[in-house]
Amino acid sequence: MAVSYLSSNAGVLGVALTPVSVTAASAGMPTVWQRDLALQGGANGSLDLLTAAFVDAARAAALVGPSIVVALLPPLAETRAIALPPLAADDRNRFLARNAARYFVGARGPQVVGSVVTVAPHAEVGTNSATIVLTSSTVQLLMQTLDAAASAAGGTLRAVVPAESAWAAAAVALWPVFARGTAYAVITRADRTDLLTMVNGALQGLRRFRGPADAPQIAAIASGGGDRASARVAVAGPSDAAHAMIGALTATGLRVLAPEPKWAALAAQPDALAARFAADAEGLTFRTDASIVSQRAAARRTAWWALAAASVALIVAGFVHYAGVRRELAQVQAGRAAIRQAVDATMAGRAPVDAAYRQVAALASAARDARRWSAVFAALAANLPLDASLTAVRVRGDSLFIDGVAEQAAPVFDAIARMPGVISVRATAPVRRDAIEGEAPLEHFSLGAQLSGGKR
Global pTM? Predict the structure, then answer.
């Protein structure tokens, strides 16, 4: 059996089933559609009866191929709060389905179970030793029949919920204050009264009572031992039963809330109320193993489609970005081509100027680094012996080369060695002694002096 879980309520037909009737309602139906039928737990001709009912209800709602949400009223579904050890949702439902006869009085044959963990007070089930679970059970054969009937009627079975879930959704619409905090909805019928505990708009607890005679117990639960006038309590059900319950609750000190005026007529019909708000029910729903597998497969398909879409988007974005970069590069190249001639002309005119600047910079650097030879020559003249004469002076790098004559060459070498800035002195040629008749002999010398690197 494949149950389709959709998120939109557009085109959804809500159906409420009891063993003797079927009621349909939707947001687009002007009136509630209802038909009597003998539903035998999904067997003995139930398929044909349900198919015909779904076809006629869809026609009355002007829906083609509708998504159908079914709310099962007691005893077709049995809902109660129990205490269980902590379990994952699927494991918990399988455990309850295997042990349905232990937890559900009316369980006969294979069952389909739904459950939710609640935050209701532990007093709801009289224990605080385990996780409190709100659970509901129905016959597996009925679920299969509903699915087959929906398909035969040209629609799809979107979900199956217990009536209590639909009533909880209705309570938020009829009494908007139920969407926040803790509130209590009393659903009265001829044979039973259900007390729904609502926490922030969600069904969190369920107790059953006989009727107005149990109003003091209902009041005690709703007030929690506190101020009864501040408790939020509402009543829905057939007019006579509802008025009797409202009177009994008011007598205990509770202030019973009236429904929104537009919902007043619907509040008097629990079956129609469940049908109208079955599509809005959340939390407690029936899920078969097949529907779980189908839902997971759909989730996997959705994930793969999302991944594929993201990959395609990434590839397209890459191509778009690449095309944008190529376009910008072409624009830059076109701009460069447009100004190339002007730039080339500017660079050609600038080249001689740059060369001249480099030459000037070189001359300036040479001028800064050049040795001041005038100071060297002055020191040389001051330090030479009086009998020495120079015949040639040459400079090369940091060296000074001198040729000259003197009565003796040795004092000349010593004098130049003592000059400031002179590092070393050496002879560059042998000393020659010449004697001219009638004159004192003279020595010819050639020497080289290495000067320090500092500027002079």
Answer: 0.63
